[in-house]
């Protein structure tokens, strides 16, 4: 053992954390991205899973320290060598601690992300979107999570941007919470194919989501289905609305529709922005295998939802100004602070926008929404 490790004991490690907690300037909150109350709650939940026994050769690293190491790794993106100097734990042991604790966190927080299973639950989500886009039941987006070339993977994870990646497909509600996440598709799969291969698409095709029955928009007698809001990376379908491609004349129906859809689906852009800037493990491509990257990504998503719903951690995780602020006319007045913190070389990259020819019924549904938003804009401009 090196000298800095020989003088390490459970007591010294515990004292190091207690000094951080006792610091009145709130350093512990910055260190873990959460309140002490939530840290203790998570510690109580995961301790039975991550706790190790002492042996004759050495004392076990306390569960409290194991959790702190993992949360610091997720919050800072520091490599194992850097964490080694901070906690006096070897990089090899840290490389084992982090996946173990992430797996435990996934188990105890698995209920934090749950796709609705009843029509009433979908309608609760629709209420959050109704003012900007009626019949919307979520905003969908996908991202490439870039990583170093996995061993013996060939071109399986090689994507169109000439990097290696897995794909994260996520659905969020109007409160900036994830309600579905599909992680781990190989980067070589076409971006449109990611959605087609997802569990969400399978449930849509088999009517297993219990989405409410179609009904007319206000002022119309034509039934339209409840839809997810996507961008140009997704195909236009009965349940996925996307913008019209190209540029359109100011005040034209297509431009007004695109603006309405963009204002409503910006929620997913903010959600991903918060995730990437608060969990700085995403600040650069991962040097881990795809399985560990998938595990870490899901842990961050679950923690995001947990912290967003916590009264004590919400002001720490997303303080005022973090999210875009709009006025009563849906005009952006104050961009969220995450936009200034986002790094161009982060591990999270956009999907490719690929033109696709939609089915005629999907085009008719989009035209019905277009007519609604155009008529609404005409009414609002009346003297």
Automatic annotation (TrEMBL):
<dbReference type="InterPro" id="IPR027806">
    <property type="entry name" value="HARBI1_dom"/>
</dbReference>
<dbReference type="InterPro" id="IPR045249">
    <property type="entry name" value="HARBI1-like"/>
</dbReference>
<keyword id="KW-0540">Nuclease</keyword>
<feature type="domain" description="DDE Tnp4">
    <location>
        <begin position="140"/>
        <end position="305"/>
    </location>
</feature>
<dbReference type="GO" id="GO:0004518">
    <property type="term" value="F:nuclease activity"/>
</dbReference>
<comment type="similarity">
    <text>Belongs to the HARBI1 family.</text>
</comment>
<keyword id="KW-0378">Hydrolase</keyword>
<protein>
    <recommendedName>
        <fullName>DDE Tnp4 domain-containing protein</fullName>
    </recommendedName>
</protein>
<keyword id="KW-0479">Metal-binding</keyword>
<keyword id="KW-0539">Nucleus</keyword>
<dbReference type="GO" id="GO:0046872">
    <property type="term" value="F:metal ion binding"/>
</dbReference>
<dbReference type="Pfam" id="PF13359">
    <property type="entry name" value="DDE_Tnp_4"/>
</dbReference>
<dbReference type="GO" id="GO:0016787">
    <property type="term" value="F:hydrolase activity"/>
</dbReference>
<dbReference type="GO" id="GO:0005634">
    <property type="term" value="C:nucleus"/>
</dbReference>
